[in-house]
Amino acid sequence: LPDIFYKVDILVIGAGQAGLSAAYHLKREGIKPGKGFVVLDDEFGPGGAWQHRWDSLTLSNVNGINDLPGMGFADAVNTKDKELQANIAIPKYYEQYEKTFELPVIRPVRVSEVTERNERFIIRTNGIQFSARGLINATGTWKTPNCPRYPGWEKFQGRQLHTGEYKNAGEFAGKHVIIVGGGISAIQLLGEVSEVTQTTWVTRRPPDFRKYEFTPELGHEAVAMVEKRVRAGLPPDSVVSVTGLPITPAIEKMLKKGVLDRKPMFEEITATGVRWADGTILDADVIFWNTGFRHSLDHLAPLKLMNDKGGIEMTGRLATQVAKDPRIHLTGYGPSASTIGANRAGRAAAKELIEFLKL
Ligand code: FAD
């Protein structure tokens, strides 16, 4: 039987901040929803990764949510209510945004593989197949947790979970929790879990606490360094690896309480806990991996975009265009992995791709 494809000029994969921004700009530039472009997203509802974030992440402690183009966050949600959970408020905003601008988001559709045939991309999904001349990939990181497999992983009789599965600290009451990881999420969740139960904090490298205030200038510098890396074809590093961890009032409080007594990484997981290289053992009920996420790009593997440095060389005005194949843009990737970065990347990707494809 011949393959049947739904043909579009541009296919956007992912409807988080990065995909919605790209969709808005494609439409604004005159690309028609439908045959001109569609957005595929594998979730049941709007909100991208935000719909899965833990309950204590509220409008008072998120780093700041940048407005999507054309409609403010405050136009959709009462942002004065700082107790509002991010996992409720932001999906509500995105839902209203998609409706207001009549963006052609099709869900739930999971893209499993993108290949190339006759100068078109063939997009395989769990539903119908698509064929496109250009791609804007905006799949984020939430779907690909980074979870190192330490020896003995499978023997542990307690519970192991990753940041992506966490909802609230209540479920750990009365349990000894080993928290692994040295990033912002690890520390935030260590603070929260240590309020209700006994914790042990473990990191690979000593945490890089720095006494300074995180200013927008520092943010720009950090993003510029990540951009430099991806333009050189290196894997993007996290912003924290560049800026270190600024000592916030919350961290100061944890330091005083002794919660941030860090232990080096253990060597092995046992049935009942963990064992360090010097033979010390510790029994625990839970191992909580706050070890970050990777960019979700596995579906693009057949296109062989990755180089032998493990990165993808990026080009274009905001480094969203794949140097090896200018018909592909990655938004929300590397320097644009924030709500503000994703916004700008969506605009740059839409404009550059339209120009390249002469639409
Ligand atoms: P996402 O929101 O993850 O959207 C990607 C979409 O693509 C999802 O709906 C996903 O399900 C879908 N998808 C993935 N793979 C496929 C596939 N194969 N087929 C179909 N669909 C697919 N940034 C800020 O600016 N301010 C903050 O305060 C802030 N706080 C953060 C807190 C945490 C805990 C974390 C982890 C990140 C935070 N960030 C923050 C970063 C920010 O969340 C993201 O960079 C930003 O939301 C960009 O989203 P995105 O569109 O790239 O990805």
From TrEMBL:
Gene3D superfamilies: FAD/NAD(P)-binding domain (3.50.50.60). It holds the Pfam family Pyr_redox_3. The keyword Oxidoreductase applies. SUPFAM superfamilies: FAD/NAD(P)-binding domain (SSF51905). The keyword ATP-binding does not apply. GO terms for molecular function: flavin adenine dinucleotide binding; monooxygenase activity. Keywords: Oxidoreductase. It comes from the Bacteria. This is Pyridine nucleotide-disulphide oxidoreductase. It comes from Chitinophaga arvensicola.
